[in-house]
Amino acid sequence: MVTGIFSGNGKDGKLAYVSANWSEPFAGRPGIELVFTEKDHAKEKKPDTGAMFGKFGSALIISLHGDGGIYGCHVVHSAHQNKSFSAIGRMETTEFSYADGKVEGELTTHGEVDTFGEKWEVKIKFLAPLGEIPKEFQVAEEKKPKKKTKPAPAAEDDDLNLGDMGDDEPAGEPAAAGLSVKELALTKDATGVEYQAMVEHVLFQSPSAVKKVCAELAANLKAQGWAGDGPDMVNAQSSILKRKRGEAALTIFVKPQGSGSEVKMFTEG
Prior knowledge:
Layout: E1 2-8, E2 11-12, E3 17-26, E4 29-37, H1 47-52, E5 59-64, E6 70-76, E7 84-86, E8 92-99, E9 102-108, E10 113-115, E11 118-129, E12 191-196, E13 201-206, H2 210-223, E14 227-228, E15 239-245, E16 248-257, E17 260-268
Antiparallel strand pairs: 1-2, 1-11, 3-4, 4-5, 5-6, 6-7, 8-9, 9-11, 10-11, 12-13, 13-17, 14-15, 15-16, 16-17
């Protein structure tokens, strides 16, 4: 059940169907994926993918944790020129709960949001069945390492060097260094690069065409350890790439600008 408003540039998206499924853990916690669509998607094996490509009309794909905390939002609206994009914006849940085999609550953007010139608003209530977490999506509890203890030195051992205690303990491997916004891989021909550190955004232009920019970014990010996070949506007019690296996530928008392209990279984590 879903009721309420999902507007795009002033037109209602008429969401009528909702499904809830467990998804891959995010940030060490089980994830829930809510798929809202204009047309029935009940028979679709991967409703999120179909919804992203407009198979079920206007749609909203939300990724969140069991406490209602949202970490992913994909907007698909027939009234938008950019038919599909990711933008959490001011989206949040209220009165959210998961109990007794169902998930319910409210989603709201607290008014109209403007994302790259596309205006949209969400204010909906929903209720959907959701069973127990499948084993493949369960997060194992971390076991605390046991502290190794050393026997007390014998009193007569006058030659004991106290400075050597613990030398036989294996040194821990250093954690992989995190990347700052300015270390993200860009294209070789990137110009007009702007780093917005406060919101962790990167903006730049390229004289190359959209598809070429997407291909180069995908290769450069892969070499930097970023993996795909869902299907890429690449076409000449507007493209979206999503990548993840540990707990960090990237959403990249590539659009034509003059004879080249404009790139906007949004980071999380």
